[in-house]
Specification:
Elements (H helix, E strand, L loop, with lengths): L3 H8 L2 E2 L3 H23 L16 H23 L5 E5 L5 H19 L3 E4 L2 E4 H16 L5 H22 L5
Antiparallel strand pairs: 1-2, 3-4
Helix pairs in contact: 2-3, 4-5, 5-6
Length: 175
Amino acid sequence: MSTPETTEQDAYDGAAPSRRLEIVFGVVALAFTAGYLFLATQIPLRREAAPGQIDARFWPMVIGVTGVVVAIAILAIALTRPAPTREDLERIQPGGYLRVIATLAITGVFIAVWSLGTVTLFGYRIEVFPVACALLMAALMLLYGHRRWLSLVIYSALVTAFVYVVFGMLLRIPL
């Protein structure tokens, strides 16, 4: 005799444990963070910092070293322990791969457009980042199922304004 609790549990099958997936994730994480750390060491400095001072490479180096250490720990755990159960994760849904590919494509277009810096239209110099950032947010929200136009516009504008004010104005990072 089945109870409602067991039928509900039988209807939900989590993802199967995969040691290979854990190892691949650890290797990819290590490669990515090692590449990040290498790039952090290549940041050009306008002026070398005095001994004991922080320069432009400091925080990227801290993040890179921390990432490499965490990736090594993840890889070591994946190699030495059995694969953890993944019953709390859902199986890949139909269209999941397509959304990932579309997300990468949208992000690639954003980076390409952002690299333009500024555009001159009808004699006016227009900074590309705020427009590209708002369009990125709106496109990703639409891709992942958000359909209310008012909140789509408001959220995209607020996130863009926040990023622009914090990084462009306060921290003076060229966007």
